[in-house]
């Protein structure tokens, strides 16, 4: 069980950032009602490749990589994906976005006690004397560890919570953000792309050209746009200190090196969270963790999705799959997102299936394998060997099959629905299995016996054991 | 009462297809919250005509007709409409879509016991030991009857459940679908049309040209896009059988002839459904049917909308109207759709009104009559004699009046809201009736007596008796 | 406290118009779920100015002013704003829209007993013998007072309730509406603008030219588009009276002069409403008004947002701010809108902040001051002295600071979320205040002492007292 034990040797963490956390049930209901639907873009999906980041921007204590938001896959899913690499003692400076955001933290065990990832700004609203908690999500991340910290961040630009246009924007409260974060400062021809039908051809070249300049240009943080004296009066500080807030230093960028000691006066809530996590771990060892605490945002903003007790599917000869949806983690109702984590052993197959009500944005976290994606026209739009660090999109309805290579295959799949569902084309609960033999017989023009074979020969659920022949590693 | 008795001589059935049916209340709630809003397109409505299908594609045992999805009316409503004619012993092969779908079945009485229309794929999710039902809607339809079976299918492309773009797509698990079902394989200039402002002029010609080729081209089903050996291993079958799944035979198309006997091992659920329908009929005869059973998807996916007891409005001299909304049929909450069925007797008038919160897509099921639709600029954008088999859209807010011809007029209206509402311009509960006379007097510059006449001279509710003069059949 | 007493000397009223009011809880739930999300447009915000109306159309007894719906600010927020000035004895004729609408009534005290603003058309639906109330919002407004009545009306074109495109439309049941209300009759090149990327440059000129013709052209009301004889039969009136309904008289326009006495037979509901308002006022004087009655549409469609007891924030040296959201006024759940009313005293500052989950459309009701808006690129996109009667948009996420001039500054802010939230950049509950000093220290490269100053020197909540130096009125 080499693969399984290697699975235990690393662990992963998910950070969920949203506009706010609401501590009143009535408000939660109201809010979850409100964030409802995705914005559509074009899904001109014909011939895809697994994607690597297109752009890299250096900061003082790390670097940030950007996938091309205008790639047709990411356009169709209407998300932006970036990857931060934060060096030891690096601080990702405070920022916020207008879109919900999921951050996947690689190598969680290491940084467990080293990162205080989320700063949530709780404020009492004295309206009618009823408690009402609201907050923004200006957040920062500090790497207290001995090695680089890698974060894969998905920004759900197409989410209903985003009331601006479909350009990816991130608002920095400090530092010198590169223009890749500034949807609004991109050129006008570019900004129209998600909508114009005939400008597609020139898009990618122009995109690359534009982005090529990105590394030299940096904008200011949001303090830098205010009048110095007005800001000084609002904060009741001297203009010299305002100068420091507004300073633009592209060398420092958005990940700065902490030179002195880093003190964090942890709010009560965070301590509690730390304790809870430890308790969770203990509970888990005792087998009592149930994963369904009725907890609010502060407590469930971090979620270790690799705990074995959360696994949905486990096949000792094929692998393990876990889904974190709004049922498991209620705050996902607010984000309209969910996430899967899957480990496939050597040569195992993840059942061919389609996503019923979501796009699936897949990031390979480890190993490699074969991926095929088929469109409604019956053509393979992607058929490729993928590797760790690559990304691809499985659009809603499109059929997909994944098969691990010799080193196994592990991925996370961000899904654009808080209760994402799939329907399988093979396996015990598949569409074929539940059709009458007469339908299969006539629909495919096959014999009764063949129809019966079609239904019954693969009786595993989702994770399929490789056949004898393929254990030799054909793919 | 010739028209009324003829009404009884035929009966209609509605099939509702959706992503899935959810057997957990909590999930139902979550799902219904999630499907929320329509995607907007242009509503450049200036001069309309009632529409007939633009394209016809033959299959082995029937044919499929397509309305032009790029017609400005259907663009505004953002729906696609097709009509299947399935011959005796014809099987419409399994397929699924990424948009909710309503199928209106003509001549229901005949096929009642002959069609097993819906295959729903229920699968247990062992997550946390709580029951959780999820399913896709790969469905197939078989005509066991003695005559052709006609289905009018509305695909709600603009529905929030569709996360792809605004092209109509249908994914076939078998057969050889024509490219009309393949939004993704349409040409790039075409796919951009729903968005580009200046390309409108050339649209229709190109559309026709493109579609003209449609009959010769067929794509494969979704199995055909996978690698043969990978699929063989996933299904654990030999590649010869995979060959049969992947075979593209345009002659058979998507409606195939069943040569041998057609056995369906009806799942328990379906039997139950059959019994329920018989019981419903008996109950109905005894007058005890209440139409409000608290049932789940499997039981209420079919709904006979012509049962007299469901009628909302009945005027013995004008006709009968029935609304099926989410209040009557809760699963419509998930689709964000509802449907009206109206029978107008000879020369009767359906009150002029506007749709408050929905588009109305009207399909004439019988007879003929006069339709006028007025835009916010006070111009008639449609003023036409319509006939059985034609289709038109009444956009949200636009005012419409319908008047039956000499043979009566019957229609169904698909509405893009699960609780569609109208407001009338005439009749007992109209906007005029509830305004103070002083407002009418001054707003129209008429006398007090005239204002009073305006409010009080038409005291029926919705279905208006023809006046003496018009019973001669002026329209 | 001169400013505060002047505040008391005028009072404001808010009218809320929506498709309908639903008297069944189940329906309210269903409806509020359904209206969920905004339509996105482009937010190409680079260099803004406060806006005044671009177009003025005269009617017999008043005039209507239109802000340019194609201005980039209003495009980004996806709203249309108009201002009606109704002379003494003027009647704004009945109309309805397909978008939710908020009307802000200037100088409410004066017209309190003179306006019967909303006619709501309630009708019983005898479906299943259960009460079901539905209605349209054909509404009219009459100025019974001695002076002009000024209404500022926001139409939320981007609201999910609008199923047509993003053109502003208003459907008039009477009068001769100018073409500014007719999205559908605008030229084709114009209608495509909200979507086409490259046509932006020519937009504004063409817009102006087009609108310049607007004053001479008038369309008919919706009755004018129907066939005369068909309408006569539907209403059961003679064609001569139909002629009067259909008459197009641009001189009268949409605000007509009431020559004779204006009788309104107030429905029971309205009387009740009147009584309630008087009671509210008495309660308010006795300090017992709680603003949270569990009331339905008819009772809460008008809301006096200037009642001191509703104030959220009050700083005797800086001003007063009130938020009306769905928590205070549940019907706002249906509109997905809320509203703020703020009075800043001379030279006081409203805390720099960003809107977390909404756009903010700000209309200056009194006085003047300095506004700065900063985008995610750290640039001030608006930096201007604003005056009474001007309008500007603060897009979601953008940072904004407001500072009153010598005469004080008062505004209303329409917000595109029924539970709009902000996060502050300064003050006791700001993002800075709740960050650890170490984060500020390293993020800004400042000393520990400076970080501490940044957090602690402005300890007011939202409304900031001017500093000694600026009380001289620098801005």
TrEMBL record, chains A, B, C:
SUPFAM superfamilies given in the database record: RmlC-like cupins
First and last residue of the signal peptide: 1-23
Compositional bias per record (Low complexity), positions renumbered to this chain: 182-199
Residue ranges of the region described as Disordered: 179-222, 266-287
SMART domains per the UniProt record, alphabetical: Cupin_1 (SM00835)
Keywords: Disulfide bond, Seed storage protein, Signal, Storage protein
Family matches, as CDD domains: cupin_11S_legumin_C (cd02243), cupin_11S_legumin_N (cd02242)
Pfam families xref list: Cupin_1
Family: Belongs to the 11S seed storage protein (globulins) family.
Quaternary structure note: Hexamer; each subunit is composed of an acidic and a basic chain derived from a single precursor and linked by a disulfide bond.
Role summary: Seed storage protein.
Name by which UniProt lists this protein: Cupin type-1 domain-containing protein
């Amino acid at each position: 069980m080499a693969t399984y034990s290697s699975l235990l040797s690393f662990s992963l963490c998910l950070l969920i950032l949203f506009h706010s956390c609401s501590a009143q049930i009535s408000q939660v209901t109201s809010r979850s009602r409100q964030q409802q639907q995705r914005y559509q873009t074009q899904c001109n999906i014909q011939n895809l490749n697994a994607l690597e980041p297109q752009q890299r921007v250096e900061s003082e204590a790390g670097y940030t990589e950007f996938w091309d938001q205008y790639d047709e896959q990411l356009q169709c899913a209407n998300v932006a994906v970036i990857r931060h690499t934060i060096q030891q003692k690096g601080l990702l400076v405070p920022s916020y976005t207008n879109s919900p955001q999921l951050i996947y933290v690689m190598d969680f065990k290491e940084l467990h006690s080293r990162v205080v990832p989320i700063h949530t700004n709780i404020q009492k609203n004295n309206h009618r004397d009823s408690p009402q908690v609201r907050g923004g999500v200006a957040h920062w991340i500090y790497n207290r560890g001995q090695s680089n910290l890698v974060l894969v961040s998905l920004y759900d630009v197409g989410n209903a919570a985003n009331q601006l246009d479909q350009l990816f924007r991130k608002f920095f409260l400090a530092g010198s953000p590169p223009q890749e974060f500034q949807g609004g400062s991109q050129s006008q021809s570019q900004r129209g792309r998600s909508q114009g039908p005939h400008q597609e051809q020139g898009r990618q070249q122009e995109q690359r050209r534009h982005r090529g300049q990105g590394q030299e240009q940096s904008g200011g943080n949001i303090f830098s746009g205010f009048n110095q004296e007005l800001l000084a009066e609002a904060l009741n500080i001297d203009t010299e200190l305002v100068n420091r807030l507004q300073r633009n230093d592209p060398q420092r960028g958005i990940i700065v090196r902490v030179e002195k000691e880093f003190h964090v006066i942890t709010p009560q809530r965070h301590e509690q969270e730390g304790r809870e996590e430890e308790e969770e771990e203990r509970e888990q060892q005792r087998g009592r963790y149930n994963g369904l605490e009725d907890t609010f945002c502060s407590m469930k903003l971090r979620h270790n999705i690799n705990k074995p007790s959360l696994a949905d599917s486990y096949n000792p000869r094929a692998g393990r799959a876990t889904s974190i949806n709004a049922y498991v983690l209620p705050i996902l109702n607010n984000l309209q997102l969910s996430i899967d984590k899957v480990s496939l052993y050597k040569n195992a197959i993840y059942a061919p299936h389609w996503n019923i009500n979501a796009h699936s944005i897949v990031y390979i976290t480890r190993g490699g394998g074969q991926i095929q994606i088929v469109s409604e026209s019956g053509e393979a739009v992607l058929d490729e060997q993928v590797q760790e660090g690559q990304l691809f999109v499985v659009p809603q309805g499109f059929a997909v099959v994944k098969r691990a290579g010799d080193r196994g295959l592990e991925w996370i799949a961000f899904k654009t629905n808080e209760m994402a569902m799939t329907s399988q084309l093979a396996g015990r609960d598949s569409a074929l299995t539940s059709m009458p033999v007469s339908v299969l017989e006539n629909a495919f023009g096959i014999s009764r016996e063949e129809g019966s074979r079609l239904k019954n020969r693969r009786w595993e659920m989702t994770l399929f054991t490789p056949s004898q022949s393929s254990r030799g590693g054909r793919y």
